[in-house]
Structure formats: C-alpha cells, structure tokens
Amino acid sequence: MKTVLLVDDSATMLMSMKAGLEISGYRVAVAHDGEQAMSLLQGGLKPDLIITDIHMPKMDGIEFIRQARKTLRFTPILALTTEGQQARRDQARQLGATGWMLKPVRGGELLKVISQVSLQFA
C-alpha cells in the first residue's frame, strides 16, 4: 500500500483529500504545516508521494519542499495552492516540486494527477 503525506493548514482540505485517498487504497499521513511534516519525515516516515500546500504558518510549502529535498531526493512532491502565479510555480519546481495543482482539487482530478506522477516515478 502506497503512503501519501498531505501537508495543509486547512483542516477541511486535509479531511477531504485524506478521505478520497483512503477510499482509493492509499495510506495517508497528515501534517498541518511544514514544520510538522518535517518532524514526521525526520521521525522515519517514508512517503511514496507528498502533497503540500504553499501558504501555511510556521514553515510554508516552498521552504518545506527545500528542506524535504535534502533527504527525499526522488519522492514526488505536488504543490497545492489557490495561487496561479507562474513565478511561484517556477520557484517550487526549482526547489524540487514535481507538479502543481490549483485548489480546489476534485477527487477524480487528484487521483488522475497521482496516477500520472506514479507512472513517472515508478
């Protein structure tokens, strides 16, 4: 069973995405900000995929991607945000984000993107 780490400060987004992923057969770990996500990774969590919001308190998604890439070089990371600015997308990709999704993400759309990313990194 593949494990997905969801990182988002919105409890509603976490609950919605977690439920959809679990129904589809994924194991899901959640964190409410980049600091909490880094603690999970440093504690031994080895996700097959990370989905992170960009705008979060404590440690935002951009910094989280930067930090996570120091230890998880090949794990796909999808950036999730309401923001469509190309400069932020480019920054996230430069730091190691695999892809970018705009909120709100519907369940079918999320699973399609995960499937595409999984094929690339299988």
Structure description:
This protein has helices at 11-23, 34-42, 61-68, 86-95, 107-120, and strands at 3-7, 27-31, 49-53, 77-81, 99-102. It has a five-stranded parallel sheet with strand order 2-1-3-4-5, with helices on both faces. By secondary structure, the chain is of the alpha/beta class. The model has no long low-confidence stretch (mean pLDDT 87). Strand 4, helix 4 (86-95) and strand 5 (99-102) form a beta-alpha-beta unit. 31% of the residues are buried. 44% of the residues lie in helices and 20% in strands. The chain has one domain: Rossmann fold, CATH 3.40.50.2300. The protein has five helices and five strands.
In the sheet with the most strands, the strands line up as 2-1-3-4-5
Uncertain regions: pLDDT < 50 for 5+ in a row?
A: none
Q: What's the pLDDT, averaged over the residues? A: 87
Number of helices: 5
Q: Any idea of the CATH class?
A: Alpha Beta
Tell me the name of the CATH homologous superfamily.
Answer: Response regulator
Organism: Aquabacterium commune
InterPro entries: Bact_response_regulator, CheY-like_superfamily, Sig_transdc_resp-reg_receiver
Keywords: Phosphoprotein
Protein name: Two-component system chemotaxis response regulator CheY
